[in-house]
Amino acid sequence: MSYIPEPQPQHSDIEISAFYYPGTEQMAEWDQVEQTLPGIKPLLGWYDESNPEVIDWQIKWAVEHGISSFCLDWYWNKGDQRLDHWIKSFYKARFRKYLKWYMMWANHNEIGAHSAEDQINVTRFWIDNYFRTPEYYTIDGRPVVVVWDFKNLDRDFRLEAKANGEELAEGEGVKRALELSNLEMRKAGLPDIYFISMCLAGNYEPERIKAARKAGFEEFMVYNYVSHGFRMAPEAAKPEDTQLHFNFDCIVAGTPKWWENTSAKGMENPLIPILPTGWNSQPRSFENALVIYDRTPEKYRKLCQSCREFCEKNDRKRILIAPLNEWQEGSYIEPNEEFGFEMYNAVRDAFCTEPEGGFPPDLLPKDVGLGPYDFPPMERPAKTSWEFSKDVQGWYRQPFGTAYLRIIDGALHFFRSGGDHAALRTRLEPFPAKNFSKFRVMMKVTPPPGDGTVTGKEVVRLYFGTTERPLFSKEMCICREGAVSVPAVMDSEWHEYTLDVASNPLWNGMINELWFDPPQVHSTYVDIRWMKLEQ
Predict the structure, then answer these.
(1) What's the whole-number mean pLDDT along residues 201-221?
(2) Cα-based angle 396, 402, 404 (whole degrees, multiple of 5)
């Protein structure tokens, strides 16, 4: 076989879209999943999302199971893009004509990131790169854009207006932003954008939705349904279950109740029904994870059938799988070693009409002599000092702790996206701890503008693991005792920090991994000129 067999799309009377998180642009992201939940490995391997052949498999498998479009997490912060590798490669894929895509603008940026100028720029980018392509998803001929948090737009446009001597009422800022976008669309001879507002995961806030509708949003959705399952279906919980650790029966029992409360026919502002895929965020949050356990194909099949029945009863024509492949958060149904194609087949069997000749077979790359598509394993450089004049020197961003890594003006530059997660990590050729007593770093920390999140108690922290004591335990905990810290200075100036690693009694044996953690303040910019271990 010279290439992947042509996709055979399956028909569903209910349009099925799926959230797609393009979060694995390098092995470093997969590595953390492999270290924590190795049994969920995708059937495509620890795959390279920048490979168009990988994307052709994703397209084939999606459309052959009734999924007709992907809603991609999409990042833009004052023109700085990240995690756009999948979209770029999608436009090189042979089978792209079979699948539509649209963006969920994940605009959880720092205060002041949005402005009139930026809104015009981002809209022109959409027009020039996406909206005129036949693969971009539309509703009633209008290109669809989902906005993660319309209040961030509203806040920044109101601040900009105030700086210019104009007072805007709450909601008027985001309304102005959407109007600016649609003005650019009309200048380009295109229809207005079909804006959809995203609510927080699992929440239904009528007042927030009314405000979004007034500002110009057409519809409303959420990204997932997680902890609400435990609260809405306590009868399905086991005695030992808690809100942070409960069984998937709560999702199966609670989600139909939630659909009725948020998406039923006749509601003034219903949400688009979502079909949740569970949650287990141990690869990113370790012992602080929210875990929904005992998810099985049989239970997911029951949930899919319940969704089909709800849609038919309430005349709902579109649903969202939420999400398809959040591997780091344990929210996925993409074919994998744990369940094979069973989750995909549950969707297909519930929503698609089986053709006379039967559904197409679930082919694997090896069935046609293709693949594997795994990234090479992470390198373990023999390094104990790092200067960032040209590249990242073997350091990787920690998912959900760091938005991106750049080399700017001879320094490692990144945006701190917050949370209880270290920002950077590196895996090393093991070296004796006794050879070093200090870890030094030259760093500049620029806090977010005046939002009151800086307390003065922030610290710089270094975690370490050894061949004898891994950074992760079998119980999925990160060894926080294996750390040293010093107070941080957040004044946008360069400072040298010295961390006394030898003062920690666990600093012994052979060191094989370091995690570096600047202040855990959301929307902070960090620049690092160099790091080094010294005696």
Answers:
(1) 89
(2) 70
Segments in 138-248 forming alpha helices (H) = 150-163, 172-187, 206-215, 228-232
Neighbours of 475 (CB within 10 A): 8
| φ and ψ of 195, to 5 deg | -85, 135
Task: Count CB neighbours of 140 within 10 A.
Answer: 8
* 341-387 confidence digits (pLDDT tens): 999 999 999 999 999 999 999 999 999 999 999 999 988 999 999 99
Nearest to 301 by CA among 258, 266, 349: 349
Q: Token pair of 285, please?
A: 């949050």
Token pair belonging to 514: 């370091």
Q: Mind listing the pLDDT tens digit for each residue in 446-503?
A: 988 765 678 889 999 999 999 988 777 656 666 778 899 999 999 999 999 999 999 9
CATH class of the domain defined by 15-368: alpha beta
Give the pLDDT mean for 499-511.
96
Quick check: 59 and 99 in contact, CB under 8 A? yes
How far apart CA 507 and CA 492 sit, in angstroms, is 31
The pLDDT value recorded for residue 203 is 67
Q: Any bridge partners for residue 485, and if so which?
A: 461
* Preceding amide of 270 cis, omega within 30: no
Cβ atoms of 64 and 10 closer than 8 Å: yes
Beta bridge partners of 336: 42, 340
Q: Does domain 385-534 have CATH number 3.40.50.300?
A: no
In Å, what is the CA distance from 265 to each residue of 73, 223, 260, 317, 439? 28, 21, 9, 11, 61
Residue pair 283/398 in contact (Cβ under 8 Å)? The answer is: no
What ranges do the domains of the chain cover?
15-368, 385-534
Q: Which helix (H) or strand (E) holds 181?
A: helix 172-187
Pairing status of strand 142-147 against strand 100-105? parallel
Residue type (1 letter), 272: I
Eight-state DSSP code of residue 98:
G
Whole-angstrom distance, CA of residue 518 vs CA of residue 421 = 10
Rounded Cα–Cα distance for residues 509 and 466 (Å): 7
User: Residues 227, 232, 238, 242: what is their CA dihedral angle, to the nearest 10 degrees?
Assistant: 30
Q: How many residues does the chain have?
A: 535
Q: Which residues pair with 293 in a beta bridge?
A: 247
The predicted model scores a pTM of: 0.95
What is the predicted pLDDT for the residue at 109? 87
Task: Average the pLDDT over 215-239 and give the result.
Answer: 92
3-state DSSP call for residue 424? strand
Residue 88 to residue 71: CA distance in whole angstroms: 15
Among all chains, which residue has been given the structure tokens 């005046």?
450
Kind plus residue range of the DSSP H or E element containing 502: none
Cα distances (angstroms) measured from residue 522 to each of 108, 250, 326, 447, 459: 10, 32, 21, 9, 14
Residue 455: CB atoms within 10 Å: 9
User: Hey, how many other C-beta atoms are within 10 angstroms of the C-beta on 99?
Assistant: 23
pLDDT band at 154 (very low <50, low <70, confident <90, very high): very high
